[in-house]
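Hello again, I could really use a second opinion on something today. Take your time with it, there's no hurry, and the full record follows here:

___
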Amino acid sequence: MSPSRLIVLLLVLAPGILAGAPPSFEDENDYYTVEQFPVPPGERLEIGGMGFLPGGELAVATRRGQVWILENPEVEDVEDARWRLFAEGMWEGLGLNVVDGDIHVVQRGELSRLRDLDGDGLCDQIDTLCDDWGLSGNYHEFAFGLPRDDAGNFFVTLNVAFFNPQWWHGKSAVPYRGWALRISPEGEMTPWAKGFRSPSGVGKNAQGDIFITDNQGDWCASSPIYHLVRDGFYGHPASLEWTAEYRTSGTLASDEVPPPAAATQRRPAAVWIPYEWSRSTGNMVHDSTGGAFGPFADDLFVAELTNGMVLRCNMEKVRGEYQGWIQPFRQDVGSVARVLFSPQGTLFCGMTNRGWGGRAPADGLARIRWTGRSPLEIQDVHLLQDGFDVAFTKPLAAGTALSLDCASLYQYDYNYWWEYGSPPQHRTSVEVTGCVLSEDRTHLRIQTTGLTPAMVARVKLNGLLGAQGQPLLHPEFAYTINQLPEGPLTNQHVSKIVPPPPSKESGQEGWLMLSWGDPMDRFSSEGWELVNAEIARDEGTHFDITVGNGALVNAGDQPSHYTTKNSFGDCELHLGFMLPEGGRSGILLMGRYEVALIDSPKGKEGETGLCFSINGAESWDTIAPRFNAYRHAGEWHEVDLRFRAPRLGKDGKVSDARFEQILVDGRTVLEGVNVPGVSATSIYETEAPVGPVVLWGEGSEVAFRDIRVRPTERGHPSPLPRTGSPKWSPVFPEEQFDDWILTGDAEWELDDVTLVASGPKGALISTRNDYRSFDLRARVKISDGGQASLIFRVQDPLEVVEGYAALINSTFPNMEKTGSLAGLNSIRAQLIPSDTWFNYFVSVREVEGGTHIRIWVNGVMLTDYMDVERRFGPGHIAIEHGHAASTVSVEALEVRVVD
């Protein structure tokens, strides 16, 4: 495009073009319809792979080990769909391809060929083509695929494993976890490339090059799309353990220190997908329909599970390597894990979310069809040295003239580290210095003060309208700039090496998991049920409820609020929630200060009625969020709150309650907001230093999950004051190690300051035997499946350890969990995850009415029990280790004698 054919856009707006509200052309459904196929009765099709048979039938592999055939995928009415079961009994088919009429499926442990030998439409024979990779039995060792290159080779990718207790560190315990494999038509496997974490999607572009998507987590800042190159290293260190270099030298990949290869060999992502657009990326497919799917020939369409949509991207080669742009294409599809074009130009979408919380529907098959109307869209983006050339599918309105505000953009990068993902770093606004429109009004050149390589550019086009006054359907894109077209090459990455963050134990220290185990145990919850829920397919104003344990829903008659039995002051709160269409709920901190939960997908910044507003009262206004972070009805949103309770003195309030931060899906929507009083929806009239967490349940249906709270130190001081109290002393002084009393066959080890018990059942008992009224405290951790107890007032003789027992149990199949006073006061919620340190505090007092026992976990009192029978008199203190499959760790076990 020559400068003589460009119109320089000035600062004046063309009359009538941008003024007033444009017609409503922004509905995606006007251009691309979504239809959901009914599935066979009683079946759930969690689709992991798709392929077309020579006669036009669609074969789908499922996570549950079946292959189904949709006999008429292009049927006019999806209700007339005909399914037949072709094969079953396989192990999690997450990739499928059809070669010469034979269905090929990648299972967890092999690439299989399925054959119908007699032509009756059913599988008669399954052949193993290749099983040259390992399985440790870990739940996360998925295998994905299954595109072929021009030579007929298959490509398979292998997930790393995640083991307890440090589940956030991906491991390659067996070959070739974290690798991409090439498998010849004869079944010969070649390890092709390494450094992947959870490479769920494998696909090809129009040129036949292979691309792989990965998923955010350790060493993976967001969701990237990689161009697959032989022997390439893509960032996750675990897979390096199967390289010749590491095997020969005996080197083990560090979980937390970047490997040398990260600085010298790491391949860049061709595209980094913004977190709010994709949190669980599936496969991709290029538009090979020749225009049958609209004006996007050769573009890549990318499956996105969590946000339930399809994205669209394209790439170009800059300095010899692929890089490019991405934007949303079609929302409200479902938990899309797989996409595939039919020969007729229909985009089929296979859905599964494995309970991870994607958009409804969670499984099944959908198809996206072009209506024949072309939207005004960004068709392509070309990187320039100082900006971008943006092509449109249609000309902009005649007479268009724009200000420099027609485009706004900023750049950012990420941290390359072992933490789970990375927030965008170093966000920098880039000044737009010019906008130039081509004479045919189909190209916009955006000029800037300069772009920086090794960063993502996020660009939004503002106020552009088409000839009929329609706006851009999707006005925003993200371009991954690994290199600029000119100038020195950079050796930096978008995901940059930074000093490793501090190690962590489990990431759950200090938290109470209020909805794990028995979720009703720690709540007042009339009319609430533990079920599986997704938005109803026929009527979006309510949920479809099935048996399960994925959500807490107010589905009963006249449901109450969902209110914690414990009170909290300063705290952090995490939960997930989902609303139906028109839904309304709320989170009331201390039962007084409401964060509104409202189905407001189209709400604009600054409007009232937005989700995540802090609800006001007559004397103060509602506080709106910075932006609308709510996506859609039927989608799970993750909320994290940091809250400070009001400070109340004897003469009145000293300081207001304060929302330190509200994050939604990792993005801050409010920060540092003082609240002058209780919300209008408060269940209390006055303020107080503590109160319950109340989840609003008396309006529409609402679903919650993963509710957890972490009391902070200032809001929850030590349960009993120490000032002027007797001195704390160790129950088991190290210098008296040889005098410790042992029963049973447990193995006890003192590792620095940590006392560890394993092996068969047994107890460690104090020599002192007259503990009557006292406080007991310790830092404790129990293994997955383990059980132990702090037993006090243990009676002689010691052959049988009898006394009051404060249980230590996370996942052992005993209904009484940590915080229980065994047999007397049961805590059924699994408040503390296994392999997680927590603070245990026990108070025993002999009072007029009996023996008064209280138990705190992480600063929250769970047991307050008066034993009027005084079952056990003064006695020993003991740690009892429960069974051979258990390991209990105890630090700082101290006692403070009161009398």
